Amino acid sequence: MNDSDEGAGRTARSKRADARRNEETLLEAAAAVFVASGVEAPVRDIAAKAGVGMGTIYRHFPTRADLIIAVYRHQVEALAEAGPGLLATSPTPHAALGRWIDLFVDFLVTKHGLAAVLRSDDAGFDTLHAYFIDRLVPVCAQLLEAAADAGEIRSDVDAYGLMRGVGNLCIGADHDPRYDARRMVELLVAGLRQSRPT
């Protein structure tokens, strides 16, 4: 391989890295807009949040469904990676669990919108749901186990059951301004605490 081939290889890798970073920026902006305004938010709002033109979004994601699915997968991966990091940096395992559940609530906002968008493609949604379960239940289980081992929470809490409970508390929250889903989820997480003998 000569110097020009090596230079071309570095340039191609650099362009791929730039493209990945740009896509990551778009996905993070879209996720933030979806959490704040729902999955039907105008694409121009996402473009403004990401600091790009609308054409850039359509180049990466030709349809709204493509964008929502990409955000969904991006959020699942971010949640999966967040668990161990939160355990390492939070003052207690229970605090790490609470912070992770808060991120999970943000994800659920997008997930509910995704279900509506993919209603006509049950197989596609089922595949994404299986991916979500496979990636996130073990992370939640790790957080629960750490908190139980530290004596902070009861030891009989099932990760899938907790995630399902949080999901159920979040359903319909956007339709009733009097209902504060986050507050209900906070109470649920606080209720996991192991009672101390007096």
Automatic annotation (TrEMBL):
Record feature DNA-binding region, as residue ranges: 42-61
All residue ranges annotated as the HTH tetR-type domain in the record: 20-79
Record has Transcription as a keyword: yes
Keywords: DNA-binding, Transcription, Transcription regulation
Stretches the record annotates as Disordered: 1-20
Pfam families, sorted: TetR_C_43 (PF21597), TetR_N (PF00440)
SUPFAM superfamilies reported for this sequence: Homeodomain-like, Tetracyclin repressor-like, C-terminal domain
Taxonomy, superkingdom: Bacteria
The name this protein goes by in its record: TetR/AcrR family transcriptional regulator
Species the sequence originates in: Actinoallomurus vinaceus
Species classification: Bacteria, Bacillati, Actinomycetota, Actinomycetes, Streptosporangiales
